[in-house]
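As agreed, record copied across for absentees:
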Amino acid sequence: MELFNLAGRVALVTGGNGGIGLGIARGLAAAGARLVIAGRNAAKNRAALDALSAEGAAAIAVEADVTQEADCLALVARTVERFGRLDILVNNAGTTIRKPPETFTLAEWNGLLAANLTSAFLCSNAAYPEMVRAGGGKIIAIGSMMSLFGAPFAAPYAATKGGIVQMTKSLATAWAKDNIQANSILPGWIDTDLTVGARQQVDGLHEKVLAGTPAGRWGVPADLAGTAVFLASAASDFVTGTAIPVDGGFSAQA
């Protein structure tokens, strides 16, 4: 359907070398977008790029630390140098630490804030002039169920993901005049390297997820692709400032 066609569009996906980011990158590429995936791990970047290229995607990988403003500016510049424009930014990069809140150090708090929230702010600001130049754009931020709920092992992470949603709403209101739509996706429990760690660290998590998710399963990265394509395409031109759970119904009954 033409509304969802991303041919001619260029998408930058931070943390696009694995997990949810790679699942979204695959979906955007299948809809016709050209891709830049960004990550700090060069070997992981190469493996993701090889997989995308094997699937026919026009893509490059850029090594970048998106907690650093200079890297964010250089990342956008590289995108435009290679593909001539930037239409779609997926603020996906992030990490977590799981333990009780009273055991966190200030350095750990600041590190999570930088990785999960400041990075999205820096990338969005770096992308803004290019989106204006292109006549508009789409910003997609990856929040979490923890944008809605608390968890005893995730206080700093939840704070950053709540911040992602509110910051993205503010970008939506600030940049609507520039034909830029900004929205968030809130993944449920998705089977990735990060959640493998969660299952090892949180007793009974696997069983709790299955019991609390009406769909009766963990999600997979490909489950995020359709929502991302919708938010990246003309189909969502009058959708901005919203947050869409993709969680198998978890938030509908929790």
